Amino acid sequence: MEKHTTDAGAINMHDEMRRAFGLLSGKWKLEIMWLLHQRVFRFGELRKAIPGITQHMLTVQLRELEADGLVLRTIFPEVPLRVEYEITAKARGLTPTLEALMAWWQEFGDTLPARPEGRGRKANITKKTAR
């Protein structure tokens, strides 16, 4: 891709696209955005919906998405405290992109090699044998 810089004030689309990619880069951000595109989630629901993500990583990714204006965090002053996450109107602008990715996957997904499930921490279950 060429850098289109004709004068000092011109927009460099390569740099702009790098900024756009950076908003959604990270191991979990696209999956979080996909889920929030479907409906509003509470933190625990998101954690259960994303196998392998740790509580810490989900918190980090949600905070970054919130800081970038893509996720809205709403706190309800109830006992126990209820916190909900949803995508913003700005993030809804990504709907055509998510739909295009889904269409691409439906067409080509079964032609791609399967990857082993290696994401996140796995439970360390040890079985004690009876003596």
UniProtKB/TrEMBL annotation:
Pfam annotation, one family: HxlR
Domain HTH hxlR-type intervals: 15-113
Species per Swiss-Prot/TrEMBL record: Devosia yakushimensis
Residues making up the signal peptide according to the UniProt record: none
SUPFAM superfamilies the record matches: Winged helix' DNA-binding domain (SSF46785)
Keyword terms, alphabetized: DNA-binding, Transcription, Transcription regulation
Domain of life: Bacteria
Protein name from the UniProt record: HTH hxlR-type domain-containing protein
InterPro entries named in the record: HTH_HxlR (IPR002577), WH-like_DNA-bd_sf (IPR036388), WH_DNA-bd_sf (IPR036390)
